[in-house]
Amino acid sequence: MAVLPGSSSSLELTISVPGFASSPPLLPSSSVKELDINQLPSEEEWIASNMEDEEESSINGEAPRKKLRLTKEQSRLLEESFRQNHTLNPKQKESLAMQLKLRARQVEVWFQNRRARSKLKQTEMECEYLKRWFGSLTEQNRRLQREVEELRAMKVGPPTILSPHTSQPLPASTLTMCPRCERVTTTAATAVVPTSTTATLSSPKSHQPPEASS
DNA sequence: GTCCGGTGGCACATTACGTCA
DNA sequence: ACTGACGTAATGTGCCACCGG
């Protein structure tokens, strides 16, 4: 399956112990700076608030956790950069941060989260793809089972099939069942080599999994 | 060459904030 | 005004690779 990346086929289990990870203390909502996405702070304010955060955290170690929304332009540039490369080297990170007027750490975090979102989306797509494939195989299996039943029934009293060309009875080994149209057909290869018992089901394409939607 | 501690980067899980229906 | 769902920025933790002593 070329569609599926190798890494995604392995499952990793992680056990997290509740209460093990230290979490910051809950803060009263009044301590949170209100930010309206429609009234985004100016770039200067943005930077100032970021630096403010850094200072606060360095002073008492318990900085209020503020969440800043990225502007559309910042998001656009980050997305553009992500399309080119899913990881950044320190120089790229620094220059991108400078360009976006963000801290390098914020750019780094954005890329980490973006990679995680990307992977999640990919996993969901693969899940859908496998579901559809499973459905397709189930259906194919059902039809083949039915075909086997029909062939077994035919074996009890096989009707003589005459060649449409010569009107002569055809050997059983030259007959195959086309699962697509469910019609008995002759197979050229087996007709030439009567000893062959190869069963030609249909074109290989009908056995391929469904195309993964993008 | 090997060991060891420090450091940086990443994946992953989780938390918490902002927005919207 | 309130609330729950959702998206996502931010944080915490563990793992790994690399480097210098």
TrEMBL record:
Residue ranges constituting the Homeobox domain according to the UniProt record: 61-121
Localization annotation: Nucleus
Keyword Transcription applies: yes
Coiled coil, from the record: none
DNA-binding region ranges: 63-122
Compositional bias of kind Polar residues: 201-214
Name of the protein in question: Homeobox-leucine zipper protein hox3
